[in-house]
Design brief:
905 residues; 22-stranded antiparallel beta barrel; five-stranded mixed β-sheet; mainly beta; disordered N terminus
Length: 905
C-alpha cells in the first residue's frame, strides 16, 4: 500500500475578506435560489453556457488584494509546484486532519490479481462483500434486487448506499434499478492513476451517503506515451478475457489521456459447483428441492401424489400413489455468475488558457451486457374438470392443485440485462492571487438499467387449463413437453425492470490562506453547489421523479503548533444541504492531528453524517408470490411485500475515530497505523422483511403473518403482483412485509490496522504488509421498538476479523507477491441448533517479469501470471436458505489462473 505524503508547501497570503465574502454570498445566493432545469435531457453545453453567462466565471477570475500583505505584493512564482487536494479535505496542500486515507497507486493496480476496479477495492478488509455483487443474490443488503448484476462498494459493512463513490471529487450517477450504489467497474483500470479510500463519516465535506466513508477514483493525467495490455483468466467451468489500451500526450500547458478496456466473461453454471444444491442430504441436512417439478405433483385435500412420467394423456387414479412426490432443484439449469461483456472508455484533458486559468475536462462511458442462466419457470395452479386431461386420484369430480415446472415445454431461462453509463465534468481552475485558488465546474451523468425476465401469464394459463379441446388445452400431467407450442407461446410474458437516472451538478469553490500564525497559515475553503437529480422508472411502473439539492460548505485548517518541532493541527468543516423533498440538514466535521515527534502522529475526528432516501426508496410497491423455507425446513407459500415508501426521512449518524501512525526514523521503510472508529447510525431505512430467511428468524416475527385472513390476501392480490399469483387465495400460508421503513439502527465500533515494510538488499528489494479489520461490535435493530442486538459474526453480517497480508520481492526484472486472505469464523444462527462456521484462509500469487527496451519501439514489456485461491479451497457447508454455502463469505469461482502481457511505448 502506498502512503500519502504532504503536498508541497504553498506561499502565504490571504484574500481580502470583504471582497471574498461578497463574492461567495452573491454566487451562493444565485445557486440556492436559481431555478433548476426541469428537463434533464438538455445538452451539457447549454447548461454550462447558462452557468458561465450568469457572471460566475467573471467573478471567479477577479484578482483580489491580500489582507495581510502590502498592496505591492509580488506575483506568485509560476514555477511553483501545484498543490493538490487529497480526499477528505477541500483545502489544497494539506492532508485530511484526523482521518486516515488508504491509497492504491498505479503500481499497486498493476501488481494486483484483480481484473476490475471493483475487485481492486474489494481486496481491502474495510470493504465488505455485503453489497451489490454479481456473485450473490441473497437478501443481505438487498442483493436480491440487483437485477442487472452490478457491483458496489460497502465500507465497514454499513451498506453500499452508505458509501459515497466519487470521480476526482465529483458525484457520479447511481447504478442499479434501485439507484443505491455506483459500480466502479465501469471505470477502466487502465485509466486509473490512484484509488483513495476514506473510511470515515464525511457528510460535513461531501454531503449525503458519506456515512461509511468515501471512495475517490482519480484518473491518469500528465501521461505521455502509450500502453496496451491483454489478459486471459480461467477456472474450472469459467473463463474471462480482457484487453485494454491507454494513450497520453503532454505539451507545454496541457495534456490529454484516453484509455479503454474490453472485458468478456463467460457464465459459471451451478452444475459446475457441487455446493450449489438444495438437496442437503449429502451434508446430513434436509432435502429442500421443490415440488414444482417435471413431472409435477398433484395435491388433493393436503395429500400429495407424484405424477408418473409420461405424456399424461390416459392417466387414471390407479396410476397415482398417495404420499409420494417428485422433486426438482431450483438450481437445475441455473447460473452462478452471469455471462457479461463490457466496453469502457475514460479520458482526461487539461489546458492552460492563461498563466492563471486552466480548463479541464474528464469523463467516462461504459456499456455492459449480461445474461444470467436460470432454472425453468414454475407455477402452482388448479386444474378444473373441463380440462380434457383431468384426473383426480383422491376426490374425483373436484378440481386438483398441480405443482409444475415448464422445463420440458419452455426450457431453462436466460435473463438478459444491460447497463449504459456515462459522466462528464468540465471546469476552470483559477489562480486568484495571494495563494488563493478558485474552481467553477459543471458535471452531468446518466445511468440506464435494463432487465428482462419471463413469467407465466396467469390468465392465459387458467384459460388453457379450462380449455376442453385436447388439441389446444394445456396438459399439466405430461412430462414429455408434448403440449401445443401455440398454447405455450400464449402462456409466457415478459417482465421488465427498466430505470434511468440522471444527475447534473454545478458549483464553485475557493480556498487559500486568511492569516498567518506562528505555526503557519490558517487556510479556508468555501463553496456552493447545486444538484438536480431525475429518476425514471420505465418498467414495470411509469414514474418520473425529480430532486433538487442546494448546498453551501466551508472548511478551515488551523496550525496551532509548528515550526520544526512538535506539530498540532486542527480542522473544522460544515455543510448545509437543502432538499426540495426531504428537508434540510447541517453536518459538521472536526479533526485534530498531533505530531509530538517526527515519527509519530496522533489523530482524531468527530462528525455527523446523513443519507437521504433515494427517489427509488420513495417509489412504488413491488409485491410477489413465492415460496420461502420456514424454521422447520418446510416450504411455505408466501405473499412477499416489497417496495418503496414516500414518507421516508433521511438516515442520521454520528461518527468519531482516533488513531496513530508511526514511521520510525531509525527504521526507514516501516509504516504502522492503527485506527479506532465508532459509528452510531439511526433512523435507518430498512427492509427487514426483504429476507429470504424471514420465516426462520425470531426477530422478524412481527412482520410475518401466518394463515392470513382471505380478505387481506384478496386486498393485496387486487393491487397486482409482479409474479404468477397463487392458484387460490387460500393457498397463501403467510405474508411477509418487506417494504422500506425508517426503523433501523446500527451501532458499530472496531479497530483497523495497516502495516508495511520495504527494504533493499544486495540482490534486489523486498516488501511485506498487512491490512486488517477487527470489528468489536456490530449492534443492529431492524424492527421499531426492539432492542439493539449484536449481529457480529452471524450469517449475512460482518465477521469480526478480516485481513489481507502480503510478502513480495523483486530481483532484476522479476517480481513476485504472495497474498494471504483471511475471513474470520462466525455463526449461522438461521438454523437450529446454531452452526459454527470455521474461518477461511486463502492464498493468491502474483508474478511479473519486466523487460526494459526489448524492442526499439517498446519502452518495456511485462509478462504477468496471477493465481487466486491457489489451493482451491472448498467452502464449508452452511445451510443458507436453499443454498448449501455462504456466497458472501466464499467466492464460488475457486482457483483461477490468469496470464497476461502489458507493454509500454
Amino acid at each position: 500500500m502506498e502512503r500519502f505524503k504532504s503536498a508541497a508547501d504553498v506561499s502565504s497570503g490571504a484574500m481580502n475578506a470583504v471582497s471574498f465574502s461578497n463574492f461567495m454570498k452573491k454566487y451562493a445566493g444565485e445557486v440556492l435560489v436559481g431555478e433548476g432545469m426541469n428537463d434533464m435531457r438538455k445538452t451539457l453545453w447549454s447548461n454550462l453556457g447558462a452557468m458561465l453567462a450568469g457572471g460566475s466565471l467573471i467573478a471567479l477570475c477577479l484578482p483580489v488584494a491580500a489582507l495581510a500583505q502590502d498592496a505591492g505584493s509580488q506575483a506568485e512564482d509560476k514555477e511553483q509546484v501545484e498543490a493538490i487536494i487529497v480526499t477528505g479535505s477541500r483545502i489544497r496542500g494539506i492532508e485530511p486532519t484526523g482521518s486516515p486515507v488508504i491509497g492504491l497507486g498505479r503500481t499497486d493496480i498493476e501488481q494486483s490479481v484483480a481484473t476490475t476496479t471493483t475487485e481492486l477495492l474489494s481486496q481491502l478488509p474495510q470493504v465488505f462483500n455485503f453489497g451489490a455483487t454479481d456473485a450473490s443474490f441473497t437478501s443481505a443488503n438487498n442483493q436480491n434486487a440487483n437485477r442487472t448484476f452490478g457491483t458496489g462498494i460497502n465500507l465497514r459493512g454499513l451498506g453500499t448506499e452508505s458509501t459515497l463513490t466519487l470521480l476526482d471529487g465529483r458525484r457520479l450517477p447511481a447504478a442499479g434499478t434501485q439507484s443505491q450504489f455506483f459500480d466502479p467497474s465501469v471505470i477502466p483500470t487502465m485509466a486509473i492513476e490512484r484509488l483513495e479510500v476514506l473510511a470515515d463519516g464525511s457528510s460535513g465535506i461531501y454531503g449525503s451517503d458519506a456515512v461509511g466513508g468515501v471512495v475517490n477514483l482519480l484518473l491518469r493525467k500528465n501521461f505521455n506515451g502509450a500502453e496496451v495490455m491483454g489478459r486471459t483468466k480461467f477456472a474450472d467451468g469459467f473463463d474471462e478475457y480482457q484487453a485494454g489500451a491507454a494513450l497520453g500526450k503532454t505539451w507545454s500547458g496541457g495534456s490529454i489521456m484516453v484509455a479503454g478496456e474490453y472485458n468478456k466473461r463467460g457464465a459459471l453454471l451451478a452444475s459446475k459447483r457441487y455446493f450449489y444444491t438444495d438437496d442437503f442430504t449429502r451434508f446430513g441436512g434436509p432435502d429442500l428441492r421443490s415440488p414444482n417439478s417435471a413431472p409435477g405433483n398433484v395435491t388433493v385435500r393436503g395429500v400429495t401424489y407424484a405424477i408418473p412420467a409420461g405424456d399424461g394423456t390416459n392417466l387414471t387414479a390407479g396410476n397415482f400413489t398417495a404420499g409420494t412426490r417428485n422433486l426438482q432443484s431450483a438450481f437445475l439449469g441455473a447460473g452462478v455468475l452471469p455471462e457479461q461483456e463490457r466496453y469502457s472508455v475514460a479520458a482526461t484533458f487539461e489546458q492552460e488558457i492563461t498563466d492563471a486559468i486552466k480548463f479541464y475536462a474528464q469523463g467516462f462511458y461504459a456499456k455492459r451486457d449480461g445474461t444470467l442462466d436460470g432454472t425453468a419457470l414454475t407455477a402452482q395452479f388448479n386444474v378444473p374438470t373441463t380440462n380434457p386431461f383431468y384426473v383426480n386420484p383422491g376426490t374425483p369430480g373436484s378440481p386438483v392443485t398441480v405443482a409444475y415446472s415448464f422445463k420440458n415445454e419452455l426450457g431453462f431461462e436466460r435473463s438478459p440485462s444491460s447497463q449504459e453509463a456515462y459522466h462528464i465534468t468540465g471546469g476552470l481552475n483559477v489562480k486568484l492571487g495571494s495563494d488563493w485558488s478558485g474552481n467553477v465546474f459543471y458535471a452531468y451523468g446518466h445511468d440506464g438499467e435494463r432487465s428482462l425476465t419471463r413469467q407465466i401469464n396467469a390468465a392465459a394459463l387458467n384459460a388453457a387449463l379450462a380449455d376442453p379441446n385436447r388439441a389446444t388445452a394445456f396438459n399439466p400431467f405430461s412430462s414429455t413437453g408434448n403440449n401445443n407450442p401455440a398454447t405455450m407461446a400464449k402462456l409466457v410474458g415478459g417482465f421488465r425492470v427498466d430505470t434511468d437516472y440522471g444527475i447534473q451538478e454545478y458549483g464553485l469553490s475557493a480556498d487559500g490562506p486568511v492569516f498567518e500564525l506562528p505555526a503557519g497559515d490558517v487556510r479556508v475553503a468555501l463553496g456552493a453547489a447545486r444538484q438536480q437529480i431525475n429518476w425514471q422508472d420505465l418498467a414495470p411502473f411509469q414514474t418520473n421523479s425529480d430532486r433538487t439539492i442546494n448546498s453551501v460548505f466551508g472548511e478551515v485548517f488551523v496550525p496551532i503548533i509548528g515550526g520544526g518541532g512538535p506539530e498540532l493541527n486542527l480542522s473544522a468543516a460544515a455543510r448545509y444541504d437543502d432538499y426540495n423533498d426531504v428537508g434540510d440538514t447541517v453536518n459538521p466535521k472536526f479533526g485534530v492531528t498531533f505530531r509530538p515527534v517526527e515519527s509519530l502522529t496522533l489523530r482524531g475526528s468527530y462528525g455527523t453524517s446523513f443519507r437521504a432516501p433515494t427517489l427509488s426508496d420513495k417509489g412504488s410497491p413491488f409485491n410477489q408470490y413465492r415460496q420461502l423455507v420456514d424454521g422447520n425446513g418446510a416450504l411455505r407459500n408466501v405473499l412477499f411485500l416489497r417496495g418503496g415508501n414516500p414518507g421516508l426521512q433521511p438516515e442520521k449518524a454520528t461518527t468519531w475515530s482516533m488513531g496513530a501512525d508511526w514511521k520510525p526514523v531509525s527504521l526507514p521503510g516501516l509504516s504502522l497505523s492503527v485506527t479506532y472508529y465508532n459509528v452510531d447510525y439511526t433512523n435507518r431505512i430498512a427492509t427487514p422483511g426483504n429476507d429470504l430467511l424471514a420465516l426462520q428468524k425470531a426477530e422478524l416475527a412481527s412482520i410475518v403473518t401466518y394463515n392470513p385472513p382471505l380478505a387481506l390476501v384478496n386486498q393485496i392480490l387486487a393491487g397486482g403482483l409482479f409474479s404468477a399469483p397463487p392458484a387460490s387465495p387460500g393457498d397463501v400460508q403467510a405474508i411477509v412485509d418487506g417494504r422500506k421503513v425508517n426503523l433501523g439502527a446500527n451501532k458499530t465500533d472496531g479497530l483497523e490496522f495497516i502495516g508495511s515494510y520495504e527494504a533493499t538488499a544486495g540482490w534486489g528489494s523486498w516488501r511485506a504488509g498487512v491490512n486488517a479489520t477487527k470489528i468489536l461490535s456490530f449492534d443492529r435493530s431492524i424492527i421499531s421498538g426492539t432492542p439493539l442486538r449484536d449481529v457480529l459474526n452471524t450469517i449475512n453480517n460482518p465477521a469480526s476479523f478480516i485481513a489481507r497480508a502480503y510478502v513480495g520481492a523483486e530481483v532484476g526484472g522479476l517480481s513476485g507477491t504472495v497474498f494471504v486472505n483471511h475471513y474470520g469464523s462466525y455463526k449461522n444462527d438461521a438454523v437450529t441448533p446454531v452452526q459454527d462456521v470455521p474461518s477461511q484462509t486463502e492464498f493468491d500469487l502474483s508474478l511479473r517479469y519486466k523487460l526494459n527496451q526489448p524492442f526499439s519501439f517498446a519502452k518495456d514489456v511485462t509478462f504477468t501470471l496471477d493465481v487466486q485461491d491457489i489451493f482451491d479451497n472448498d467452502p464449508p457447508y452452511v445451510p443458507n436458505g436453499n443454498l448449501a454455502f455462504d456466497p458472501n463469505a466464499h467466492n464460488p469461482i475457486g482457483r483461477t489462473i490468469a496470464i497476461g502481457v502489458r507493454a509500454g511505448f
